[in-house]
Automatic annotation (TrEMBL), chain A:
GO biological process per UniProt: regulation of transcription by RNA polymerase II; termination of RNA polymerase II transcription
Gene: EOG090X0CKJ
Pfam families per UniProt: Med18 (PF09637)
Iron recorded as keyword: no
Protein name (record): Mediator of RNA polymerase II transcription subunit 18
Source species, domain of life: Eukaryota
Function: Component of the Mediator complex, a coactivator involved in the regulated transcription of nearly all RNA polymerase II-dependent genes. Mediator functions as a bridge to convey information from gene-specific regulatory proteins to the basal RNA polymerase II transcription machinery. Mediator is recruited to promoters by direct interactions with regulatory proteins and serves as a scaffold for the assembly of a functional preinitiation complex with RNA polymerase II and the general transcription factors.
TrEMBL record, chain B:
GO molecular function, a single term: transcription coactivator activity
Matches recorded under InterPro entries: Mediator_Med20
Keywords linked to the UniProt accession: Activator, Nucleus, Transcription, Transcription regulation
Protein name: Mediator of RNA polymerase II transcription subunit 20
Gene that produces this protein: MED20
Function, as annotated: Component of the Mediator complex, a coactivator involved in the regulated transcription of nearly all RNA polymerase II-dependent genes. Mediator functions as a bridge to convey information from gene-specific regulatory proteins to the basal RNA polymerase II transcription machinery. Mediator is recruited to promoters by direct interactions with regulatory proteins and serves as a scaffold for the assembly of a functional preinitiation complex with RNA polymerase II and the general transcription factors.
Family designation: Belongs to the Mediator complex subunit 20 family.
Biological process annotations from GO: regulation of transcription by RNA polymerase II
GO cellular component terms, A-Z: mediator complex
Source organism: Daphnia pulex (Water flea)
Length: 227, 218
C-alpha cells in the first residue's frame, strides 16, 4: 500500500543522512585464539552472550574483495587509490540475499580511543552483484571462505571464525585452512557520533581476557615488510 | 510484488492542455470506470556516468519506486554497450553511490521522475504520472498493472481493453515488446518476483530515456 503522500527516495535518504540515523560506523576490536583453546573461548562467549541456551548461530560464508581504480594514469590522486568493495554470500544458505559491503579506512585514533573506527555500509542485494561489479570496472583482488560462530550481546556482535583458502576446484571439500587459529572479532554498527558504545565494547573485551586479547589492529603496520 | 502484467503507456498531452489538466481529465475517466483513489506514487531515476579515468564509458541508472520503498534498482549499461545488468539492492546503495563519486558522477540536470495519483479498480492498479525533469514538465505516463494473473500473454487483451476504456485510441492493439519476450520470466526461478519488478523498472527507464532525448513535451 503506497503512502498517502510518498516522499521521493532521495528526500527520505537526505533526511536520514541529516538526522544521522544511518548506522554506518563500525567500532571494531580484533584478536585470535589458537585452535586448541577455541573451545574454552567458545564456552565463555556462550555464557556471556545472549541466547545462552540455544547457542550461537553458525555461518559459512564466501567473501570476495573487489577493487576499482583508474585504468589510465591521468586520473586524480583519489582515483589512483583503489576503492575496495566486498561481496559475501552464505554458502550454507544459498537462498539468502548476497551482501555488498563498503569498508572505509580504519581510524585508530589516540590511545584513549578504545576501538578502531571505520565507516561501513552493508547492502543486501541480488546474486548478480558479481557481474554488476565486473561491468562497473572492478577487479577481483582475493577471495576466501569463513566458517564459524556468531554471538550477540545486545547490539554487539562477536564472531569466531576460521579462514580457508579458496581451492582451485572451488568446492567446499577443497578448503585449506590458512592458519591454525580462529579470528575473533568484536564489532558494533552505529550511526556516527555514538562514541559511548566504544567503551561498552572495551568493557566486554576485558571480560574475555585472558582467553583472547582483543585489540585495535593497525593494518598499516601489518602490511610493512618484516625487517 | 509481481509486475508481470504491467503496462506503461505514454499519453500524449493534447495541444493547449497543461499537465495538471490532463491528469484531472484522466482521473475523472478512471473514477467513472470505478477506480478508487488510494494514495500517490513516485518513480524516480538518476543517471551516473563513469569518469574518463575508468576508460570505456559506462552509465549507472539508479531508480526508486514508491511501490517497493526498501529497494534501489541499479541498472548498469556495460562498456560494451549491448548489455544491461540490473541489480536490486537495499536502499543504502544510495550511500554507496555517493562514496563512488571519484569514479561515477551524476549527470547534471537529468534527474527525472514520474509522480501522481494511484488508483485501485478491482484487480487493476492505475497510476497517473506527471513526468518532470528538473523543473520542466515533460509529459504523462500511465501505468496499469493487472494483479490477478501472472501470464502476460493470457491477459494482454484484458489490460488493453481496460486501458482503451479510459485512455482511448493511444493504446496500441499489439502487445508491447516485453510481453513477447517475457517467456523468459516465466521460467521457474527463485528470483522470479525480482525479475518481475525489474521488468516494470526497465519500462520506466526506457520511457525516461526517451523523455530525456526529447526537447519539450512528448
Amino acid at each position: 500500500m503506497a503512502n498517502q503522500n510518498p516522499f521521493s527516495a532521495i528526500e527520505l535518504f537526505t533526511s536520514a543522512l541529516r538526522s544521522n540515523i544511518i548506522p554506518n560506523q563500525e567500532y571494531l576490536l580484533q584478536g585470535s585464539v589458537i585452535d586448541s583453546s577455541a573451545e574454552v573461548l567458545h564456552n565463555r562467549l556462550r555464557g556471556l552472550c545472549d541466547a545462552a541456551e540455544t547457542g550461537p548461530e553458525t555461518f559459512h560464508d564466501h567473501e570476495m574483495c573487489f577493487s576499482l581504480k583508474a585504468s589510465n594514469p591521468g586520473g586524480t590522486p583519489q582515483q589512483q587509490q583503489p576503492f575496495l568493495l566486498r561481496v559475501r554470500r552464505a554458502l550454507d544458505h544459498p537462498e539468502y540475499p548476497w551482501q555488498l559491503r563498503y569498508l572505509g579506512q580504519p581510524e585508530l585514533g589516540d590511545k584513549n580511543q578504545p576501538t578502531v573506527l571505520r565507516s561501513c555500509i552493508d547492502i543486501a542485494c541480488t546474486p548478480n552483484v558479481v557481474e554488476f561489479l565486473s561491468e562497473l570496472g572492478c577487479r577481483i583482488e582475493f577471495e576466501y571462505v569463513l566458517k564459524g560462530y556468531l554471538f550477540r550481546k545486545g547490539r554487539m556482535k562477536v564472531t569466531m571464525s576460521k579462514i580457508f583458502r579458496m581451492g582451485q576446484a572451488k568446492s567446499p571439500d577443497s578448503l585449506e585452512s590458512v592458519t591454525g587459529s580462529y579470528l575473533v572479532e568484536l564489532s558494533l554498527l552505529a550511526p556516527s557520533g555514538q562514541d559511548a558504545v566504544a567503551d561498552e565494547i572495551k568493557v566486554f573485551a576485558e571480560q574475555l581476557r585472558p582467553l583472547v586479547h582483543l585489540e585495535k589492529i593497525d593494518y598499516r603496520r601489518l602490511q610493512q615488510p618484516f625487517t | 510484488m509481481l509486475f508481470f502484467n504491467f503496462s506503461l503507456q505514454l499519453f500524449a498531452v493534447p495541444e493547449g492542455k497543461s499537465g495538471p489538466q490532463v491528469i484531472e481529465m484522466l482521473t475523472k475517466r478512471a473514477i467513472a470506470l470505478g477506480a478508487v483513489l488510494s494514495g500517490s506514487f513516485i518513480v524516480d531515476c538518476e543517471t551516473y556516468s563513469s569518469t574518463a579515468s575508468l576508460g570505456a564509458p559506462r552509465s549507472v541508472h539508479l531508480l526508486h519506486n514508491s511501490e517497493t520503498p526498501a529497494s534501489v534498482f541499479a541498472l548498469l549499461e556495460a562498456a560494451s554497450g549491448n548489455k544491461t545488468v540490473a541489480l536490486v539492492a537495499d536502499n543504502l546503495f544510495d550511500l554507496l553511490m555517493l562514496k563512488l563519486s571519484n569514479f561515477y558522477t551524476a549527470k547534471k540536470q537529468t534527474k527525472i521522475e514520474s509522480r501522481g495519483p494511484r488508483f485501485e479498480a478491482g484487480d487493476f492498479l492505475v497510476k497517473l504520472g506527471s513526468v518532470t525533469m528538473g523543473p520542466a514538465f515533460k509529459g504523462i505516463l500511465v501505468e496499469v498493472e493487472y494483479q490477478a494473473c501472472s501470464l502476460p500473454a493470457a491477459c494482454w487483451d484484458l489490460i488493453r481493453e481496460f486501458m482503451q476504456g479510459f485512455l482511448g485510441g493511444c493504446v496500441p492493439s499489439t502487445p508491447p515488446p516485453y510481453i513477447q519476450v517475457c517467456s523468459f520470466f516465466l521460467l521457474p526461478s527463485r528470483f522470479g518476483d525480482m525479475l518481475g519488478t525489474i521488468d516494470g523498472i526497465n519500462q520506466y527507464l526506457e520511457q525516461f530515456n526517451a523523455f530525456r532525448k526529447t526537447t519539450g513535451i512528448r
